[in-house]
């Protein structure tokens, strides 16, 4: 019997119970960083390493169309999102997002978010207890909405923040979190589609060149603009990943609490160290466990095969904690990124490949820029960390400190 046709047990249920350890545990038994299994009833091949990243992002090997499970589309990305497209269609849609990576745009978003943070700190100082994960979500949402040109009267920032966080929090799990994510997406797609319609009818003015204006007029083809629902999906695909930086803010607070020596260099305003700290937070702490695509043809990697229509998985969490790449992967050391920038095929917390032409998250530069700025502000903030459950459960996807990282006695710098 062909190697790729030998029967394997489906491993979907173990994934749900083992979380981030599911794939690395199986990789540990492989000499070549490759695992053959079954997932969602389909044959799957999991790979790891810089060469595997390039293999995974080769469009001759993998397509995203039809690869993302419906529960993930209905919560995290949205039906018809850029993440579901391939080839020319993907590149055409991605043109909508690439200008947002311009350094001036990233700087502008960072300024809006840090202004929202500074406003919030004064409110936190008057409250007995603040949960940083929750409050960071509101700050990030307020900042990105102002930057994107959304009218303040059209957005309830706190409700939108709760919904954006729910979309991320419930995409990879059955049960109540998933149901909340579905309801949140449906609610916000309806609201954003209405806003897109109001912009197109000129009932609402969108600032020229703003994200809202760009998405409202974007055309994938000569026949006309995106339908209002798809435009709403893509608007949320700007807002949602920005709000998701709240996970990294909570992780940054966790790192500064566990290893307070990093606080002084951040407080001093060392820009290179802030960048290195941001990269190390993204490498060290778990976010995406793996990425997947649908195989276009029969693929073979290190002697293991998967047939057309199977699944190719890229082990993100395992690669970011691979001893061969990082030497001491479970030590939190920002210094590892001070002497050389991260290799984009080694550090892959938001995927690999070229963000301009491939499927690497185009918002990665934004995430790093926001985290640099907010880590410095967090290091300069005075507060007390009361007793709480700061464990980060690896069975929960996406995970975070169980308490959300609560602080008391906040004092503005």
TrEMBL record:
Its cofactor is heme. GO terms for molecular function: heme binding; iron ion binding; monooxygenase activity; oxidoreductase activity, acting on paired donors, with incorporation or reduction of molecular oxygen. InterPro entries: Cyt_P450, Cyt_P450_E_grp-I, Cyt_P450_sf. Keywords: Heme, Iron, Metal-binding, Monooxygenase, Oxidoreductase. Heme binds at residue 361. One of its GO terms (biological process) is sterol metabolic process. It holds the Pfam family p450. PANTHER family: CYTOCHROME P450 26 (PTHR24286), LANOSTEROL 14-ALPHA DEMETHYLASE (PTHR24286:SF24). Belongs to the cytochrome P450 family. This is Cytochrome P450. It comes from Streptomyces mutabilis.
């Amino acid at each position: 019997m062909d190697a790729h046709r030998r029967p394997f047990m489906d491993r979907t249920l173990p994934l749900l119970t083992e979380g981030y350890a599911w794939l690395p545990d199986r990789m540990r038994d492989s000499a070549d960083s490759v695992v053959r299994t079954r997932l969602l009833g389909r044959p799957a091949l999991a790979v790891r390493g810089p060469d595997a990243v390039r293999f995974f992002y080769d469009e001759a090997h993998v397509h995203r169309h039809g690869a993302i499970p419906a529960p993930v589309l209905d919560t995290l990305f949205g039906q018809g999102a850029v993440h579901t497209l391939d080839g020319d269609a993907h590149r055409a849609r991605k043109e909508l997002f690439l200008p947002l990576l311009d350094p001036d745009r990233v700087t502008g978003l960072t300024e809006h978010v840090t202004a929202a943070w500074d406003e919030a700190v004064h409110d936190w100082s008057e409250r007995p207890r603040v949960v940083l994960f929750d409050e960071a979500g509101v700050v990030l949402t307020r900042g990105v909405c102002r930057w994107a040109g959304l009218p303040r009267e059209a957005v309830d920032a706190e409700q939108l923040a709760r919904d954006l966080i729910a979309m991320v929090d419930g995409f990879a799990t059955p049960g109540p979190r998933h149901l909340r994510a579905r309801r949140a997406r449906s609610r916000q797609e309806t609201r954003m589609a209405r806003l897109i319609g109001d912009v197109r009818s000129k009932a609402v003015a969108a600032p020229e060149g703003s994200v809202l204006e760009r998405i409202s007029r974007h055309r994938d083809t000569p026949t006309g603009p995106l339908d209002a629902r798809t435009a709403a999906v893509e608007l949320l695909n700007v807002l949602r990943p920005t709000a998701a930086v709240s996970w990294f803010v909570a992780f940054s607070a966790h790192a500064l609490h566990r290893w307070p020596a990093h606080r002084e260099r951040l407080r001093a305003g060392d820009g290179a160290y802030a960048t290195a700290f941001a990269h190390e937070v993204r490498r060290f702490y778990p976010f995406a466990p793996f990425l997947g695509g649908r195989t276009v043809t029969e693929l073979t990697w290190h002697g293991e095969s998967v047939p057309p229509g199977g699944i190719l998985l890229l082990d993100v969490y395992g690669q970011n904690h691979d001893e061969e790449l990082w030497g001491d992967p479970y030590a939190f050391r920002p210094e590892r990124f001070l002497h050389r920038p991260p290799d984009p095929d080694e550090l892959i917390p938001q995927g690999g490949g070229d963000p301009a032409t491939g499927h690497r998250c185009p918002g990665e530069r934004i995430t790093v820029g926001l985290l640099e700025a907010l880590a410095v502000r967090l290091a300069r903030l005075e507060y007390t960390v009361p007793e709480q459950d700061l464990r980060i459960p690896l069975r929960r996807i996406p995970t975070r400190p169980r308490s959300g990282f609560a602080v008391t006695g906040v004092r503005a710098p």
